[in-house]
Amino acid sequence: DHLASTVSDSDFNWQAADAAHHLHPFSDHKSLHQGRVRIITSAEGVYLTDDVGNRILDGMAGLWCVAIGYGRQELVDAAAAQMKTLPFYNTFFKTATRPVISLAERLTAMAPGDLNHAFFACSGSEAVDTALRMARTFWITKGQPSKRVIIGREFGYHGSTTLGAAAGGMVDMHRQGAALPDFAHVMPPYWYGYGGQMSPEEFGLFAARQVEDKIREIGAENVAAFIGEPIQGAGGVIIPPETYWPEIQRICRAHDILLIADEVICGFGRTGRMFGSETFGITPDLMTLAKGITSGYIPLSAVLVGDRVADVLINDTGEFYHGFTYSGHPVACAVALANLDILESEHLAARAEASGIKLRAKLIAALGDQPIIGEIRGTGLIGAIELTADRRTRRFFEKRGRVGALCRDHCFSNNLVMRAVRDTMVFSPPLTITDAEMDDLVDRATTAIMATQADIRSEIL
Ligand code: PLP
């Protein structure tokens, strides 16, 4: 057998080697390898290139993370310089490095409210796991160990560690060993799907009050925290009505329950403000961050901790038995600092807000009248297109997910990455996307959606 590293690209069957040896995350391997796995070889700006020379518009910014776009030399330089000076040192041994201290200082200065302390990890999942451990440790330290239950939401996504998956509302993950005791779930603020005849504002309050009902059912003395993404990303870009988050915050405070904002997707400009919590007017007790923190150039995540929880952890808990070898990795922190320089100097949060408005207008102009389009929604540069069986009644397709998968495949064959969540097409391009690139995105999406509609009409489905 040839080893991949010893032969030229074209001589080697990368797909066969992938099928033989590589287990992909969140994939059904049989169906994955029936098609041709695309090998992505390089990227620049908002475009990816594959090994046969296709130029693919990345409407997902990788996995919602490449905020500043691909190919930014500043981050490469920051990583190289830090690797040369100090490629690694831990933060366990009464030691720290300058990049980690600078990043902690900078993030806490940027963050809303009194999130004045930062803990670092590598992935969003680890950040969530950490935040949940901190929330429970907070109540244990305060002498209220019965306050353990974490309330999350249906379609919530908080990562793939067992705690994160248990907090999330993905039942398929629960079925594969990630259901744990002391986790509860309530309905998401998904007006399009669940709002019925209610106005979005009425429904926002209704959905928030499900949390209060759940707290009463379990007993506030047993609930540690509520965790939610300001906008639920992986669950289908569920954007809550304006009434939702303020009511959630009121409920958490009234029942003395910690509020955790999982900003792994929303953080760093995605929603048109630096943090989703600002977009929705809340000040959480804990905030989880990842993805856009380094624009995905290197793994890094953070938990920002408000004064109330930090005071207890710092002054009363003693040792918090939790941490990772790479907590505060100096190279990742140096890359994050360079990434924040770009986010701030190019005003990418404000740009996301302005571009989002333009992008939605373009999508509505191109597609708004089509029978298959139920809703086009977005906040900043995170958005969704609901495909529907009946736009008047907002009826879902009979077998959920088939039309979405078909549309996703049409997008991919048109060299556009747009994901399907059930029959909801979701997008979150790099925040640097230009007007011309948005036109390109809309053209490709229109072609794919019209092809999907034609398939449905010709009863391929
Ligand atoms: N939390 C949210 C809101 C996410 O969207 C994700 C990933 O998509 C995670 C947590 C998990 O992050 P990671 O995949 O980096 O572990």
Automatic annotation (TrEMBL):
InterPro entries: Aminotrans_3 (IPR005814), Aminotrans_3_PPA_site (IPR049704), PyrdxlP-dep_Trfase (IPR015424), PyrdxlP-dep_Trfase_major (IPR015421), PyrdxlP-dep_Trfase_small (IPR015422). The keyword DNA-binding does not apply. Transmembrane segments: none annotated. It holds the Pfam family Aminotran_3. Keywords: Aminotransferase, Pyridoxal phosphate, Transferase. Its cofactor is pyridoxal 5'-phosphate. Gene3D superfamilies: Aspartate Aminotransferase, domain 1, Type I PLP-dependent aspartate aminotransferase-like (Major domain). GO terms for molecular function: pyridoxal phosphate binding; transaminase activity. It comes from the Bacteria. The keyword Transferase applies. NCBIfam families: PRK07480.1. Belongs to the class-III pyridoxal-phosphate-dependent aminotransferase family. This is Putrescine aminotransferase. The lineage of its organism: Bacteria, Pseudomonadati, Pseudomonadota, Alphaproteobacteria, Acetobacterales.
